[in-house]
TrEMBL record:
This is C2 domain-containing protein. Coiled coil: none annotated. Residues 29-56, 170-242, 264-294 are annotated as: Disordered. Residues 44-54, 176-186 have a biased composition (Basic and acidic residues). It comes from Polarella glacialis. Residues 200-227, 264-284 have a biased composition (Low complexity). Residues 1-105 form the C2 domain. InterPro entries: C2_dom, C2_domain_sf.
Length: 311
């Protein structure tokens, strides 16, 4: 037999109008092949992360699938019953090859609403084995638990007591070598070894597959939270506004620069006379210093003549 114990769930949103106020009390229900197995106690105030510590449910591992559901109580004023948060399906054959605890994705009308985690444990063998064991125990037991005696009734003769079948001819020895038939113990050991090798391969592949599944589930969970979170929409709107403001500022700066260039071209146009005057200013520097001598002599002669006429 197998024991199933629901541990908790992670829901993506609230499913009632009063859920955001902290009054959502979810519980879990387990169903096997259309027959209810059991349900947990509601976690009061569990909101979107309920946890349960109820006794495990006993199920038959040879019976198909498990259906796990999460419910919350509806508003009694509106006349609503229990509200389904989501349900997930687990195959018992695949479940025995996966580690415990195990997570099942919850969905509601095609919408992913969260995850439910539960632990499983094998407590005994298949009940069919116990039925065969009970049937064999009907024989009278002797010393050591073995049957004391077997029934001594002879087998009936199909041809009658008076008729006797012809005896079979004696066995003839052949020259062909007989193949070695392995014993039952060897076959069992080989089967156990193969099973052990398969388990090792599965254990080596499971961590990578589990890590990939957890990463994808975590990414999906974050994306769903961002979609339902109003802060994410506000951040997107703020980023868009900032980008628009930056573009407007850049356009204004470009327009101002163009206006300044136009004003400068109107006030200070390039004149051809200025371009010609610049090389002419360099000519006095090229004149030698000896040219200043005649000017001094002429001034001295003028002074002497002036004094002569005055006297």
């Amino acid at each position: 037999m197998m024991e199933i114990r629901c541990q908790g769930a992670n829901l993506t949103r609230f499913f009632t109008a009063l859920g955001s106020l902290g009054t959502q009390s979810p519980w879990a229900e387990v169903e096997q092949d259309g027959q209810p197995v059991g349900r947990t106690q509601p976690h009061k105030g569990g909101d979107r992360n309920p946890r349960w510590d109820d006794p495990p449910f006993v199920i038959d591992p040879a019976r198909g699938h498990l259906i796990l559901r999460v419910f919350v109580p509806g508003a009694g004023v509106l006349g609503q019953g229990n509200i389904l948060c989501g349900e997930g399906v687990a195959d018992l054959r695949d479940l025995q090859q996966e580690p415990s605890p195990h997570m099942v994705a919850l969905q509601k009308k095609g919408e992913a609403t969260g995850f439910l985690s539960f632990a499983w444990h094998i407590t005994a063998q298949d009940p069919k084995i116990f039925a065969h064991a009970a049937a064999r125990s009907a024989a009278v037991e002797g010393n050591g638990g073995y049957p004391a005696a077997l029934p001594q009734t002879p087998y009936p003769q199909p041809c009658g007591r008076e008729q006797v079948r012809q005896e079979l001819p004696p066995a003839q020895h052949s020259n062909h070598q007989q193949e070695h038939i392995p014993k039952r113990e060897q076959l069992q050991q080989q089967g156990h070894q193969r099973h052990h090798d398969q388990l090792q391969r599965q254990q080596q592949q499971q961590p990578q597959a589990a890590a990939d599944q957890q990463n994808t589930r975590h990414i999906q969970y974050q994306q769903q939270q961002q979609q339902h979170d109003p802060r994410h929409h506000q951040q997107q709107q703020q980023q868009q506004k900032q980008q628009q403001q930056q573009q407007q500022q850049q356009q204004q700066v470009q327009q101002r620069q163009q206006q300044q260039q136009q004003v400068q071209q109107r006030q200070y146009p390039l004149q051809p006379e200025q371009s010609l005057q610049q090389p002419q200013q360099k000519l006095p520097h090229a004149v030698p210093a000896a040219s200043s001598a005649p000017t001094m002599e002429t001034s001295w002669l003028q002074l002497r003549l002036f004094l002569f006429y005055c006297c």
